[in-house]
Amino acid sequence: MENYTYNSLTLQLEGLMVTNTNKYPVFLFLLLAYVFILIANVGIVILIWTDRSLHQPMYLLFCNLSINDVMGNSLLVPRVLADILVPPSERLIHYYECLMQAFTTHMFGTNAHTVLMIMAFDRYVAICNPLRYATIMNSKMVIKLTVSAWGVSFVLVAILLGLTIRLNRCRTLITNPFCDNPSLFKLSCEDVFINNVYGLTFTVVLLSSSICSIILTYSKITAACLTNNSKSLNSKALKTCSTHLCLYLIMLVTGLIPIALHRFPQFPEYRKITAILFNIVPGSLNPVIYGLQSQEILKCLSKLFHLKRVINEM
């Protein structure tokens, strides 16, 4: 007869199965990626908030994406880094810490969709209603969109984890490099039908809403560009929309790969790696792509570096 430990507050993370040979290269890669994510995203947020010329809806909404990237990686990567350096038997985590990590993980993924959806709305108004852009996208609207993006994510994720918290646990091993909702409700020996139904509904509604809103928005933007003879407007639309679309595709692809790998249980390590990369890749590329494509941000950065050079020469 199998022995179970009920509702233990100490859980064990399986983590990444790295050998002694590749332990330190993997650790170094994740550490450098995390440091870059912090510096790039925090730097972008500080630059936007301190430079009044960047106090535009497009950049203020992008701050949400940078804050989300920092939040999502800060509760995930340091823990993964710590676990790499210890044997699997010592990768222990408290249940409440695991819940917090799961909540942050799902908030990060959900926010990535909702924030990019409100950024798409901003681009739609800017290109399809340029004369009313300042009236529609005022400070109140930016606050409403931001609160809506984070509020919807919070409610959806709170219900997701609320259904899991109610379950009694009879297992302690989390077969993942970090905590998430499926890993937590798999610890239970009770019926998890409701969890599976809500989790599937949650994923389908989020993905379908996200994809449909992007398709609808860009269809209207394309139609507006085709009927408009202004080359400068079309050029600006192409530049800003290509940046936003690139960020969306990176987030979508990196998110769908680990979901697809769940169908192939013979590749558990690939699934774990891609799940971590879902946080790291968008978090690293978002500030780079947005920063390089934005003339305003590049101008502010060049002014900043020029000022520092002048001060050093004095």
Beta fraction of the residues? under 5%
Number of strand elements: 3
* Radius of gyration over C-alpha positions, nearest whole angstrom: 22 Å
Largest sheet: 3 strands, mixed
Give the strand order, joined by hyphens, for the main sheet. 2-1-3
Classification by helices and strands: mainly alpha
Portion of residues within helices: over 70%
Q: What is the molecular shape? A: globular
**Parts with pLDDT < 50 across at least 5 consecutive residues:** none
Q: Round the mean pLDDT to the nearest integer and report it.
A: 87
Order of helices and strands: EHHHEHHHEHHHHH
Euclidean distance between termini CA atoms: 79 Å
H/I helix tally: 11
Keywords: Cell membrane, Disulfide bond, G-protein coupled receptor, Glycoprotein, Membrane, Olfaction, Receptor, Sensory transduction, Transducer, Transmembrane, Transmembrane helix
Organism: Sander lucioperca (Pike-perch)
InterPro entries: GPCR1_Superfamily_Member, GPCR_Rhodpsn_7TM, Olfact_rcpt
Transmembrane segments: 26-49, 142-165, 197-219, 240-261
